[in-house]
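REQUEST ID: PR-0412
SUBMITTED BY: lab tech R.K.
PRIORITY: routine
TASK: structure prediction, single protein chain
INPUT:
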Amino acid sequence: MKKTFLAVVLTASMTVSVFAGAGAVAADEGVNYISEEKRDQAPAEGTDFSNMKIGEIEDYIVTDGGWDQANHESILAAMEELGIPEENLIVLEEIGEEQAAVQTAAEELIDEGCTLIIGASTGHAPFLSEIAAEYPDVVFAQWGNKVDNLIGYEIRSYEGMFLAGYACELLSQDENTELGFSASFNEFSVRTAINAYALGARYANPEATVRVAGADSWYDIDKETQCAQSLIDAGIKYMGMEASSPAIPETCEKNGAYVVGYHNDMSYLAPDAVLVSHMWNFAPIFKNIMINAAEGTATPNDFYYWGGDCSKLSDFAEFVPEEVVTAVEELKGKIESGEVQVFAGELKDNAGNVLVEEGDVMPDEEIIFQNFYVEGVSTSWTAGE
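STATUS: complete
OUTPUT:
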């Protein structure tokens, strides 16, 4: 539901050569990397957004409590900051990942006068790429890596999940150094969440391990319940997740276990179980895209890969000890300063192979596609399947 991994995205990865850390990039011909310094960009004096129409294409519904809702709320937040009326947004939901469905949706938005169209599912990318080539006066932005004719936007989600894994291990290690992770699919963005969570746990305790239970579904209450329950039955009390339904938090709460919410703040689903939530915050990116679209400076070669508050954590639950919250804040500061790099060497995969040598940092194209599981991760999945 959230994202479909397509061969076209792998092809696009060949163009990306940005480096992890403080946002430094290597200038690949044809790709315009938008620096994180642009995060606080203000529109030029006199820029008029009042007549700007924005189209939003979602593969599910914007009240799903997960991925689509995070995208939708980020669009609304960016619009509000720029003073763009909410009625200027046209939302099309449950658009299938087939050419006919995507083409119909895009043409409907164009006919309605939309000059900026934002897509959330990489399953739409190859079809939007073709349509965008036919409408050069319309700006198209699409989550995921850089695809021809589409502005690409990504978030360094591993920063927030690294902090979440660190917090869970601080809480768990006196009882059990094994954490859990209830995951949706064996897919690159999911592997990013799992690996970052595991690396954060091992930053707190080098002996920490993470056991993964996979649902093989983007949204399945029964399967997600089973995943969470299997981890709890194995003696795990603290887990991460990458899923949208309420099943995992609610299962944890029923069993006296704890979980890190994902996509949005999930504390309302299970207030006694949700420690903190990883939240996708695309608003700073969308704001920049909207400004550039309104001013005529956006190009289909633009690519965003931003961290910081884009990969944010919600407030911790009141029952989380203050010393843990303080430790997480201190580690967050070290990531922001570059003192701590999440995917720095020496880094091994869970088969013992060295991924990054001591003193080196993994390049962004490898971080984005996560064709590996890191040391300490136990899963029946094989990376890259």
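NOTES: The two ends are 18 Å apart (CA to CA).
REVIEWED BY: pending
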